[in-house]
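Teaching note: in complex prediction, the entire set of molecules is handled at once rather than each chain in isolation. The prompt given to students was simply: 'Predict the structure of this complex.' The entities are:
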Amino acid sequence: MENISEEELHEARVKAALAAMPAEEEIEVIGTRFKVLSEPSRLKILFALADGELCVDHVVEAVGGNQSAVSHQLKTLRDNRIVKCRRDGKKVLYSIADGHVLTMIEVAKEHVHCHE
Amino acid sequence: MENISEEELHEARVKAALAAMPAEEEIEVIGTRFKVLSEPSRLKILFALADGELCVDHVVEAVGGNQSAVSHQLKTLRDNRIVKCRRDGKKVLYSIADGHVLTMIEVAKEHVHCHE
DNA sequence: TTTTTATATGAATTGTTATTCATATGATAA
DNA sequence: TTATCATATGAATAACAATTCATATAAAAA
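The expected output is the structure of the full assembly:
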């Protein structure tokens, strides 16, 4: 009897989990945001931009690697609204798009360092 | 003259960015955490676990897909301390390891939905 | 102690993504 | 208007990670 009610409890939880499950598309979008933040080369760019905007070749200096790779990464970051940019003459200045980005990185850092 | 000082400003920012850049290993660890959260199949598992612990076959029910795939994902989540588990007889009950995980997902959700 | 149930894992395959190379575009200066 | 500097991008390759299949372990029931 105890087993049955425990089983029922678990089944109820499965139903609750299914009910609370976000739509497939939303999960994909959230996943994509995380994916963009998961690549070390892109994270480096974001740390470089944390203090303020930089033009592309200064980003290249700050993170190392070649110009083309950095430019591809910046495109990915742009496409996902993680960074934004503005042109100033020949240069294009990049900056972090909004506060959530740094918040996410901060929370991730905490999670890495805490050992609850 | 104005150009030179602007250039100097940018160079100073590059130096600041380099100085504030976390160590390579830390960036990798943070990236790995994000990577683990980036896969839709793993995110689904976390949404399923958001309300409380579930045993593996109930996770399988909640997220769909086959047992082996889910088990591999759970291992990845475990290895990265995103979830924890305890055995109860034949069953193994999984739950979310700590509060930061749901926080990160929440912030990501906000970032997806806001259009600053 | 064999069978069944629940979960885990190694190896192979498949699918994805980053990086590189070559080249294109866009803006300014000569 | 062409030469140069700054950035972007398409295509190919190379690195990586997810899923599947088959099988292994672990606990409990028969």
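Point out the following to students. Residues 35, 39, 41, 65-66, 68-69, 72-73, 76, 87, 89-91 of chain B lie near DNA strand D (CB under 10 Å from a C1'). The mean pLDDT of chain B is 89.
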